[in-house]
Structure formats: structure tokens, C-alpha cells
Amino acid sequence: MSTNDKKPLDGKFLERMDADLAGLAVQQLRQALEHNEFELYFQPILALAGKRRYPMAEVLVRMREEERSLLPPGEFLPVLEHYGMMPQLDRWVVSRVIECLASGTRLPRFTINVSGQTLEDARFVIHVGTQARKAGVPPASLLFEIDESDMLARPKAAVRFSNAIKALGCGLLIDGFGRRAVSFAPLKALRIDYVKVDGSIVRRLLTSDVARTKMNAMVRVAEALGVGLVAECVEEQDIVTRLKALNVSHAQGFGVYQPHPLDSIAGSLPA
Known about the structure:
By secondary structure, the chain is an alpha/beta fold. It is built from eleven helices and ten strands.
């Protein structure tokens, strides 16, 4: 998940909520899932080398309010997580993305964020395989993003998920990498395809020797392992230039491409 799109979860959020208000929030979220009241956006990921300029895009989730305004994830994800509803949302996203792929799109691949709860849900991968098979969509067109914090908190579940999703033919990406100590050791068992470098490193590439040293180290190891490197939160063209000089393979952020509604994908993607 691009750092442009996420907010840290407030651990006191639900404690401050009145019980009746929390119940209403859960009911609203269940209705939103049942009646397709979430909206999906896509943010293309730029290849810094190669023939295809945008080989994939991350899928972002918003929720519609009655006034048709859109709520960002930080407003509804805490409730979904608290009540164990994240696998339901993740299934809904997968189904909508597969529908988009089946109807035809200029983008060959989408990255989909999965929660820590979903890593523990063995039925999720079955859902992915069933939906892709029914729609005639190649599983390789789906790339699942696991946040580094979820990978470290649930290492056994992450490995099980990786084995199952890779057996299906889908790809795997670790998000938020470098937010803590930079180490590829926990990633080896997951057979990942891409690592997304945390925005706290990317934003400081023009001003910090430490950030550049970290990125250089990640590039060398990623190349040795055959793993693609995506720099997130790229907001300036000067950073794009620096990433190219460092041999980083991909870039994502508002300075590369603004998120657009998934429904508009056929007419909005430049060549």
C-alpha cells in the first residue's frame, strides 16, 4: 500500500467510541460490503526501464458516504480490523479487480493489499482461485501486497499464504520495506517477486546520505535475489531521476501518477 494512501491505525480509536456508535459503524460497513458501497482506485507503477511504461498498478479502496463523498482507509479500516472483517473486504476487492481484468484493461497486472487477518484465512486463496478460474483471468495478473509489519508479526501465516498463492500462480510483494532494519533474511522463505521501499527512505533520497546508502544496499541485494524494487511515495521528478541513477526498477507516487477510479481505467491510462 502506498504510504500516500494510508494512515497509522489509532489503537485508542475504538475505545473512544460509544458502544452504540460502534455497532452502527459495523452495520454500515456490512451494508457497504453487501451493496458494493466501496470504490476502487488504481495508481499505476512506473517501470524505470523496459518497454512497458506501466506494467502494473496498485488497487486502493475508498468508502462512499451518503453524501457521495469518499472516506479514506484510515476512517474505516480500524473498525473492520477490530471486528475481524478484513478478509471480507479483501475478498470483495479481489472479486471486483478480477471483473475489471475479465472485461479488458490496458494494465496487465494489479497489486492488491491483503491484511494480516487475511494471511490467517486459508479460504481466501481458494476464493482467489475460484474467481479467477470462473472469469478466465490468469492468476499471474494478480500480485498480492503484504505489509512488512504483518509479515514479521505472523511469519508462519505469511509463509503458508505465500506457498498457497504462489502455487496458484499469483505474485507476491512486501510493502513498507525498510521502515525498520533493512534485512532481506525474513523474505527468503516467501519467494517474493517485489519489495516496495518505504516512503520514509524514498522521500529523503535527495537530502540524506543514510537514505541513499540504504537504497543502494537494497538495490544490490534485490538484484542478487532477482527481486524487483518499487520506490513508493515518489512526489518529485528529481527523485525519479535519482532512482534511475541508483538502478531502482520501479516507482510509484503522486509525482508519477495520481490515483484514478478503477472504472475509468480504459480511457485514462497514457501509453
